Automatic annotation (TrEMBL):
CDD domains: GRX_SH3BGR. It comes from Electrophorus voltai. Belongs to the SH3BGR family. PANTHER family: SH3 DOMAIN-BINDING GLUTAMIC ACID-RICH-LIKE PROTEIN, SH3 DOMAIN-BINDING GLUTAMIC ACID-RICH-LIKE PROTEIN 3. Could act as a modulator of glutaredoxin biological activity. May play a role in cytoskeleton organization. Its main location: membrane. It is found in: Cell projection, Ruffle membrane; Cytoplasm, Cytosol; Nucleus. Keywords: Acetylation, Cell membrane, Cell projection, Cytoplasm, Glycoprotein, Membrane, Nucleus. It holds the Pfam family SH3BGR. GO terms for cellular component: cytosol; nucleus; ruffle membrane. This is SH3 domain-binding glutamic acid-rich-like protein 3. It comes from the Eukaryota.
Length: 92
């Protein structure tokens, strides 16, 4: 697959829910296929996300192209605003 989106189905944070939904909506609108990885199913996936991102306190959503870290919501949002999503996702 390519693009991987680490997210969570269990959170009390409206901000996290909103950010995750926006990333998914934008990727779908651009016909970019992605794999969802739910970190709420186990601590190992959360730890994997944090290790791969290089941030021990990272929270979803975190975006990767295979195992290459692309960024978090803020970085993705900036790429959307500057119309550089494909470059952000390391697709070009």
């Amino acid at each position: 697959m390519g693009i991987k989106l680490y997210y969570t189905t269990v959170t009390a944070s409206r901000e996290v829910k909103s950010q995750q939904a926006e990333v998914m909506r934008i990727l779908e609108s651009k016909n970019i296929h992605f794999e969802l990885i739910d970190i709420s199913v186990g601590g190992a996936l959360r730890d994997e996300m944090r290790t791969k991102s290089g941030n021990p306190t990272a929270v979803p959503p975190q975006i990767f192209n295979e195992d290459q870290y692309c960024g978090n919501y803020e970085m993705f949002s900036e790429a959307v605003e500057t119309d550089t999503v494909e470059q952000f996702l390391k697709m070009v």
